[in-house]
Amino acid sequence: MAANQPPPTIDPSGGVPSPAPVPAGTADPAGTADPAGTADPAGTAPGDLAASRVPRGPAATGAESSADRDAAVGDPVAATLRALLAGRSNARVIDVGGGSGSLTVPLAVAGCQVTVVDPSIDALAILRRRAAEAGVADRVVAVQADLDALESAVGNADADLVLCHRVLESVDSLERVPPALAALAGCLAPTGALSLLVPGRPAAVLAMALAGRFEDAMAVHASPDGRYGAADPLRVRFDIDRLSELLAAAGLRVTSANGIGVVSGLLPGAILQARPDGRRALAGLEAQLSTSPPLRELAAELHIIAVPAQQ
Fold first, then answer.
1. Which residue, 11, 50, 276, 306, is most buried by CB atoms nearer than 10 A?
2. Packing angle between helix 201-210 and helix 214-222, nearest 10 degrees?
3. Low complexity: which segments have biased composition (predicted)?
4. Are 76 and 66 in contact (CB under 8 A)?
5. Would residue 25 be called left, alpha or beta, if left means φ above 0 and alpha means ψ between -120 and 50 degrees?
6. SS3 string of the chain?
7. Rounded to two decimals, what is the model's pTM?
8. b/e string for 75-92 if b means 16 or more Cβ within 10 A?
9. What are the pLDDT tens digits along the chain (311 aa)?
């Protein structure tokens, strides 16, 4: 892996047209719209791991969908990944639950060698087609496997970057999170980094309280796994401190913890519609709040970067 190379430029489209984002301003605090919670936050196929295993969306958090939030605040996650890959030519990337490759095909276009691990045959078929259309089929490997079988699926990966976005909330229970993190850590090269994107517990508490779901908010705040009961579509929600402890137990240390969507999920659509420059101004506010404790803790999603403890 050569050093001092220009950083990869990640084209969010991957050279292939992507589905249009859900229009912003469709917040559903009460969780009545999209009752199945099957909105696809990454603009990917319904078969993607994060969408297929556990329902998500407004019903899951009581807030605006992730697609709405991404459209409103830009793509700070991609910006963080660009910084991680700066100076790394031909970086090896593993995307666990990457589905149809909406994030990883652009990484392949940028010069990375990408392996996508996902249990969905349909999603992986879309991934292969998308990679071929983008001209990077030789840099994208599709592996059908679940997170539980990660070690056997990728072996001694020695990856520069491992992505696990919107997946950990789908594990069977909180008790399954430590082995999942250990498996992810085992894929990393000594100089590699793990990128996690998980739902924030404080955001769910606030959104449910604002929707009048006070008992659910109390349960999410008090329960170890951040759930409000058996009807909760998510299996786990996280806060930064607890997730940092779990990562430390897996031999990783957190180097970056950002909040994605601190206020955008709470804004009525009319506010942005009334301001022609509203989206740009909101993106600036979100960027400012994303790294500012304690406000970052209130984000709908938490983007965590962790590296091997010896780094």
1. 306
2. 170
3. 12-48
4. no
5. left
6. CCCCCCCCCCCCCCCCCCCCCCCCCCCCCCCCCCCCCECCCCCCCCCCHHHHHCCECHHHHCCCCHHHHHHHHCCHHHHHHHHHHCCCCCCEEEEECCCCCCCHHHHHHCCCEEEEEECCHHHHHHHHHHHHHCCCHHHEEEEECCHHHHHHHHCCCCEEEEEEECCHHHCCCHHHHHHHHHHHHCCEEEEEEEEEEEEEHHHHHHHHHHCCCHHHHHHHHHCCCCCCCCCCCCCCCECHHHHHHHHHHCCEEEEEEEEECCCHHHCCHHHHHCCCCHHHHHHHHHHHHCCCCCHHHHCCEEEEEEEECCC
7. 0.78
8. bbbbebbbebbeebeebb
9. 444 444 444 444 344 333 333 333 333 333 333 323 333 333 333 233 333 333 333 334 434 455 444 444 458 898 899 889 988 889 999 999 999 999 899 999 999 999 999 999 999 999 999 999 999 999 999 999 999 999 899 988 899 999 999 999 999 999 999 999 999 999 999 999 999 999 999 999 999 999 999 999 999 999 999 999 999 999 999 999 999 999 999 999 999 999 999 998 788 888 888 888 888 899 999 999 999 999 999 999 999 999 999 99
Q: What whole-number distance in Å separates Cα of residue 188 and Cα of residue 192?
A: 5
Contacts of 224 (CB under 8 A, 6+ apart): 174
